[in-house]
Amino acid sequence: MENKTARAPRRSRIQQKNRETILAAALDVFSAQGFRGATLDQIALQAGLSKPNLLYYFGSKEEIHRDLLTGLMTAWLEPLRAMREDGDPLAEMLGYMRRKLDLSRDFPRESRLFANEILQGAPRISEVIQGELRDLVQEKARLLSRWMDLGRIRRSDPVHLIISVWALTQHYADFESQTRAVLGEGHDPWTEAAAFLETLYRRLLSPLPG
Amino acid sequence: MENKTARAPRRSRIQQKNRETILAAALDVFSAQGFRGATLDQIALQAGLSKPNLLYYFGSKEEIHRDLLTGLMTAWLEPLRAMREDGDPLAEMLGYMRRKLDLSRDFPRESRLFANEILQGAPRISEVIQGELRDLVQEKARLLSRWMDLGRIRRSDPVHLIISVWALTQHYADFESQTRAVLGEGHDPWTEAAAFLETLYRRLLSPLPG
DNA sequence: GCACAGCCTGACCACATGGTCAAGATTTTT
DNA sequence: AAAAATCTTGACCATGTGGTCAGGCTGTGC
Fold this sequence. Notes:
The structure is a homodimer. The first copy, chain A, is mainly alpha-helical. Chain A folds into two domains: about 10-60, Arc Repressor Mutant, subunit A; about 70-205, Tetracycline Repressor, domain 2 (Orthogonal Bundle), CATH 1.10.357.10. Chain A contains ten helices and no strands. Chain A has helices spanning about 15-35, 40-45, 50-55, 60-80, 90-105, 110-120, 125-150, 160-175, 175-185, 190-205. Chains A and B meet through helix 1, helix 6, helix 7, helix 8 and helix 9 of A and helix 1, helix 6, helix 7, helix 8 and helix 9 of B. Chain A binds a DNA duplex through helix 1 and helix 3.
């Protein structure tokens, strides 16, 4: 038995570099055009490699897309995963929202790639969603529920609370063209969004005085 | 000068019927596959017409798509447009949210068609967004601002308030596959969403007592 | 510097896709 | 009922696209 895992075969330096180059280019193209809209020629051009060379590193267009998505999932769940039981409940929720918003701001291409996939019914990542994602959400919903029982934050449906964070933060990345058009010049969507969402979640969750 | 407008030429009964059939089929296919992912063959099959016949009624794939989107815009803006100055501010906002949520629930294909378009940067409807949509939002934001000045609802950024309604209601339609997976069996996303969102906007907007 | 594995590409293929067209079928008008 | 207008389609085309392959190039270990 060789010293390598099935998922991460040993790679030469050239392989390492070119695979990264290809994935970076593919992220650009897939996030802008969707899976069907993207072409291997565009990705090859963006990567500065020939099309057959792309297919030397990845078996198919599908495989590039799959690798991008699975690589993305871990990072995407991190903000929620980082919500700690031993912190202040309101601060933990606001911190989660803030981390998710920052993620959307700093990685809009990843956000769009993900949105495109879910829009088509998530055919390529349904297992992850029904497994890892679902479990994590259920776990954190139970945590929120406990906090609500203790009166540390006001009661509302904990799963929909988590969903609302996704909806609001994703929206600023995925619908950025619309948001910018509606806000007009002289507005920074992200700064304003951060302030608005902090207000929103404070009012929704702050325990009533007394 | 003939008795017909440039935008709505007189049409025979056959034309009327077939154009509707085609648009309905196209909505199915475009919303499920995106513009690039959809093919004229799929639309023709769904419509029960031959491909050349499609192109007898619509000059191109692009034209079908454009007609769908522009036809959709009016209906999509209606819930916001219906927010009246002379009503109770909180009830008006909750009513707006509720109408938008119902629209997402009852017309998920339209919602997805729209989402797909914005995700790609809204190349085909940027004028509408920068014109009609922007104007309407600005107008209603001023109304909300006035209500806030009067202390009838609590202060928050009015444009982002409107954006939050879009984000939250669209999410339940566009990301339905994800939402259902996370909630699991035995949940009705729409009923729960309506309750959660009512709580959310009540707490965000209710004036402080005293 | 030589051999060999790993890397790269031009030329090519099969198929899908948006769109055309001439000719035939059907409906409407007179 | 005939003429005119409208509707419908099979056959076809040009282009784009994912993917293949034989053979050449290049970096690495000896």
